[in-house]
Amino acid sequence: MQVNNNGVISFLVSVSQFTPDPFPLDDGRRLLTPFWADIDTTNGGTLSYRQVLRFAQNDAIFLEADDIIRASFVDMRDFVSSWMYITTWDSVAFFGASDTSIRNSFQAVMVTDGRYSFAIFNYGDINWTTGAASGGDSGTGLGGTPAQVGFNAGDGVIFYSAPGSRTAAVVDIETTSNIGVPGRWVFRTDNSNIEGLECTTSGV
Question: Which of 111, 2, 121 is nearest to 54 (CA)?
Fold first, then answer.
């Protein structure tokens, strides 16, 4: 697994590409894409990631994740996670920004009990969609080819593209959800059953 600066978590291979391709991709790239776009942390913001194993001293964050999974999937009412990987893009700017005060904050949380696995995408303030090298406006971070949100199994068949991906509407991803909680998207990732995909919106 590799955390890429461009808003992508990839498996087997790294992803340096900053302009997102439309899903599905059939080139073997297995991707989680909370916000695939041309992020430039040298212009501001931070990328951090950590693996967490369940112990008594950090039980609270696992309890929170368990509650999210149980509420999102009716057949997971007994889910108890044991491992978590948290990746956070905090107040990140876009490549080519002439106004580096325009920032995005978002997070991907991978969680598993050893049998079932899920990805939780959390969105804070989203203000830009596109880096300048992807055709975006250097003053606004809008236009061009906007960010892709979702996941891709790499086989050209199993994928999910959140509504608004690669359109101007992705700037409002923090107001939408597939579980009824604005700014949060949850996916089951351990098998081919793509679940919990009803799209709900709030505040738009």
Answer: 111
